[in-house]
Every structure is written in C-alpha cells, then in structure tokens.
Amino acid sequence: MLKMWKTEDSVEEWEMKVKIIGGGKVDKLKTSVVSRSSMKLWMIRAITTVLLWTCVVHLLALGEIWGPRLLKSWPSCFSNQDVELTSVPAKVVLPPKRIYKNNGYLMVSCNGGLNQMRAAICDMVAIARYLNVTLVVPELDKTSFWNDPSEFQDIFDVDHFITSLRDEVRILKELPPRLKTRVKLGLFYSLAPVSWSNISYYTHQILPLLQKYKVVHLNKTDARLANNGLPIEIQKLRCRVNFNALKFTSQIEELGRRVVRILRERGPFLVLHLRYEMDMLAFSGCTHGCNDEETEQLTRMRYAYPWWKEKDINSEMKRKEGLCPLTPEETALVLSALGIDRNVQIYIAAGEIYGGKEKDEGFGRFFS
Q: Does the keyword Ribosomal protein apply (predicted)?
C-alpha cells in the first residue's frame, strides 16, 4: 500500500510538472504572438508616417510652383507666405570686383568745406580708376575755419563707399601694414597737384611717381581736376560717386528726415544757402556792406591762411565781375521780387550770417 501510494503520488507530481511545463510553453507562445503583433503595428505606423511626410513635401513643392497661378484668389498659406517675403529687405547684390594690375597706392587729404571735399573725393576716385591704382579712404580737412574733427566714416557710409565702387577701383580703409611702415619712415612722395589739370597731367606726372614710390600722397584736392575736356567715362564716374557712392551715415540721414518732417508739418518752406559766412567773405575778399572793422577782420583772416593764394583783393572789382555772394538784404529783395510768400518758412542751410544781429534783422525786415 505504501509503495502504491508513492507511485500514484509520483504520477500526480509528474502530471503537475507536465502541466507547468506545458503552461510555460503556452505562455511563451502567447507572448511571442503578442510581440509580433506589436512589431507589425509599429511597422505600419512608421510606413504610414513616412508616406504622409512624402505627400506633404510633394504638395509644398507643387504649391510653390502652381500656388501663385492656381490659388491667386484663395486665402491660403501661399498668399500669407508672399506677404511675409515682401516684408524682408532685399539682399544687396554687390557688383563684381574689377581685376587690374595695381600701379600703387594713392593717399588723399581733402581741403575746404564739405562741398569742396565731396567734389574732390569724386575727382580722386576718377583719377585712381584711370591710373589703375588703389585708393585709400580720403582724409577730411580738420584745419579749416570750421575746425571739424570728423573722419570720413563719421560723415559717409564708408562700407557702402568701398563696395559700391568695387567694379571700378579698389579702395582700402588704410594702407597694408608693410606700406604703413614705409610711410612712417618717410618713404613716400607727397605733393599738391596742379589746379584744373586734365587727365594727361596725372598720366604723365603722377603715375610715374606712383610706380617709383608705390605710395603717393596728394595733400590738396580742391579743383585739382578740370571740369571739361575729359573722357565721358571719367565724367560718368564722377557723377556715380557723388550721387551713389557718397552716402551719408544712417544717423545723418535720419536727422535730415526729421528736419524735413518738422518743416512739412508747419507748412510750405524754402531752403536757402546764403554763403554769407565769415570764411567765404574772407576767402573771396568780398566786403560790400561791411563796415571798416569787419573789413579789417576779414583781411586778417585771409592772410592767416597761407594756402589761400589771393591776398590783396579789390572787393568792388570782384563784385562787378559777379564773383561775390549776395548780401542778406539783396537776397531778401530777390525773394520778394520772385513773389515768395512773406509767411513762408525759410530754413537757412549755412553757417552763421556774418555781421551778427544787424545782418539778420536786415534779412528779416523784408519778410516781416
């Protein structure tokens, strides 16, 4: 009986082990089936996502091509995109660089007022282009009557000046280090060009100096190039420099816009450049309307500037030749004769009128 019980017990234990093992296999089979189903589901989702993204990309590509044509009147993403693009400033396209054999480096020190220096810069760019040299950004006059310490980049947009002319002439902000050392050692040539010279003067006189010394400094620039009898390309380049390359800095342009806006808000206005400042009268020797004390002051000033060549000047003779500016009173008479409304705003675009309060009142009397 005892032996039989053990046998039956072993059979039951064996059946239990078989059930456990069999149950494990079933569980493993179920798990493997579930994992395969999950894998298939994941693959379907991944493929669907890829297909959807592909369709989106193709639709966007077709929209860029056909959207402006077919959907012009539809309020869609294409029209919104166009609005956004127009608000972005257009990229500035720079002209291609002009490639040429460099014959040397031209340094320039301008003299005179801003108008004279601006005209001189136009001349110097044209000369540098014609001689195939590299121009160093011109230095502005700091010793004139105005005593203005401004550098080129304080007045003009220097980067625009350089890049806008790159298809004509190479312009540098400063000399290369090797040549700067030569200049410090005095190994360069400096001169004042002959006034009103034609381009052949620069070809036969200045170009050989550039080829010999590599660096030439022109220390005077006012009226150093003739106005007439020059190649048309030179004249065109002068105009291009003046009206395109010499652009004021953004701060100066903004100030100008503010002044004009204020004047317009107050009604019609007239801008007048009298040219009746102390330095102009001293330089020209025009003393008509000045008392003896003012005449003496203007004469002393003329002799104080050694580069002003004319010293002994007959004021009445110059006036008869039409080489003197109108006095403030004469200017007021001209404006009145032209029928200018007495109530119009007059913006004096010049320095202080010489003669002080008396001259100011004489000008204003005709509009009061």
A: no
CA distance 192 to 217: 8
Q: pLDDT tens, 227-241? A: 999 999 999 999 999
Here the tokens at position 48 are: 């669907």
pLDDT (tens digit, 9 = 90+) per residue, 23-57?
444 454 455 544 566 666 667 776 777 667 666 65
Residue from 218, 256, 227 nearest 347 by CA: 256
Residue whose C-alpha is closest to residue 251's, from 153, 341, 337, 185? 153
Q: CB neighbours (10 Å) of residue 105?
A: 24
- How far is residue 282's CA from residue 300's CA, in Å, rounded to a whole number? 8
Q: In what order do the strands lie in the sheet with 134-136?
A: 171-172, 134-136, 105-108, 215-218, 189-191
pLDDT at residue 363 tops 90 = no
Cα 320–chain centre separation = 43
Task: Return the bridge partners of 109, or none.
Answer: 139
